[in-house]
């Protein structure tokens, strides 16, 4: 028995749609992983020794799921400063923590990002300078400065 042509076209479209959905599953899984987002950066103090107050939003629960640091990275991927966070902040979201001195000039463009135990980098990032301000950087290159995750200083323990 022969099916009408329209029925065959519908079957092909359905198969193509299922194939695309199957291919998108890894991306959906990555998007669903918990991440720590930098939502605000403020600077004060003298050039070359700024104190940055960084606000982070994260799904902190306990020492198994928490933002363990925020950091300042040069555009070429060098770690300039890292603020270690020693405990989770489940009841304070977003939370702001100062850190410094950060050795940058007023016009130096830098990246400020956070790291989450256990998923690492991947949340919202801010990019800018003290002189121009900081704004979201939605087009972070994949794998940007990923090797910094093992570079000291690193948290020694989590309180709580």
Structure notes:
With 160 residues, the chain is α+β, with helices and mostly antiparallel strands. It has 2 domains: 1-32; 37-142, Immunoglobulin-like (Sandwich). It is 18% helix and 34% strand. It has 1 helix and 8 strands; from the N terminus they run αββββββββ. It has one helix at residues 5-32; strands at residues 37-44, 50-57, 66-74, 79-84, 95-102, 110-117, 126-129, 133-136. The strands form 2 sheets. A 5-stranded antiparallel sheet has the order 4-3-6-7-8, with no helix packed on it. A 3-stranded antiparallel sheet has the order 1-2-5, with no helix packed on it. The termini are far apart.
Structural key phrases:
Immunoglobulin-like; alpha+beta; five-stranded antiparallel beta sheet; about 35% strand; globular; three-stranded antiparallel beta sheet; about 160 residues
Could you give a quick summary of the protein structure above?
This protein is an alpha+beta fold and 160 residues long. Helix content is 18%, strand content 34%.
Rg, rounded, reads 21 Å
Please count the helical segments: 1
Sheet having the most strands: 5 strands, antiparallel
CATH class of the largest domain: Mainly Beta
Distance between the termini: 69 Å
- CATH topology name of the largest domain, in short, is Immunoglobulin-like
Number of domains: 2
Percent of residues in β-strands: 25-35%
Low-pLDDT regions: 15-30
Q: Which architecture of the largest domain would the CATH scheme give at its second level?
A: Sandwich
What is the element string, with H for helices and E for strands? HEEEEEEEE
Question: Order of strands side by side in the largest beta sheet?
Answer: 4-3-6-7-8
How much helicity do the residues have? 10-25%
